[in-house]
Specification:
Elements lengths: L1 H62 L2 H24 L3 H31 L1 H85 L1
């Protein structure tokens, strides 16, 4: 009986260690999963921030409402700090390269936007009209399209990793769950086996005495 107890104890120690390792792997995998979700969310939010900044700039030139200019200045001030946050969650070398290109485009667009406002301040709204054609219809559309492609690539790559990690997590969890069931069943059998044997011996002895 003592040997069986020692065997069960040793077995459960091994099972406990195996479960600890499995849970740690799941924890690391879950951390990577949520990191990927965060990267997708931040990337989407950043592109919306850029487009919103451009919209406020355009609305100011159309309406000459100072409120739009104030919003433009506020949102423009967020562009580089928020881009830094996107860079911090980027993992792959390709993503970092794409974000460097994105920074170049954003700085270029900020220069164009501010240049338009300088013309507006110095020469008035009429002088700015011709410049706006270049700002939005020519280089503006092209640059924003390039920026959209950059973030589409980053998000697509992250979604692929997200799918792979979901499958990996499900596989690990199923293996862990199966291992625990097997361990519990095996331990119950080991604990009950001596009782079954003793009951059988007692029953045989009782029948023999009768």
């Amino acid at each position: 009986m003592d040997k069986i107890s020692y065997a069960v104890t040793a077995f459960w120690l091994l099972v406990s260690f195996g479960c600890y390792v499995a849970f740690r792997n799941l924890e690391v995998s879950n951390h990577e999963y949520f990191h990927t979700c965060k990267t997708i969310e931040i990337s989407q939010d950043y592109y919306r921030l850029v487009t919103q900044t451009e919209n406020y700039h355009r609305n100011f030139l159309i309406t000459e409402d100072p409120a739009y200019r104030k919003l433009y200045e506020e949102f423009k001030g967020k562009l580089l700090p928020e881009l830094k946050k996107v860079k911090e969650v980027a993992i792959t070398t390709e993503q970092k390269k794409l974000l460097k290109d994105a920074e170049t485009i954003v700085l270029y667009r900020c220069g164009i936007w501010d240049g338009t406002l300088i013309i507006y301040d110095n020469e008035g709204s009429e002088a700015v009209k011709e410049h706006v054609v270049d700002t939005y219809k020519k280089c503006g559309i092209e640059k924003m399209h390039q920026l959209r492609n950059i973030f589409d690539k980053i998000i697509a790559e992250e979604k692929q990793m997200l799918t792979a990690r979901e499958k990996s997590n499900n596989y690990r969890f199923q293996n862990l769950e199966t291992s625990i069931y097997i361990a519990v069943a095996f331990s119950i059998i080991i604990f009950l086996l001596p009782l079954v044997i003793q009951t059988f011996v007692w029953w045989k002895g009782w029948n023999g005495s009768n």
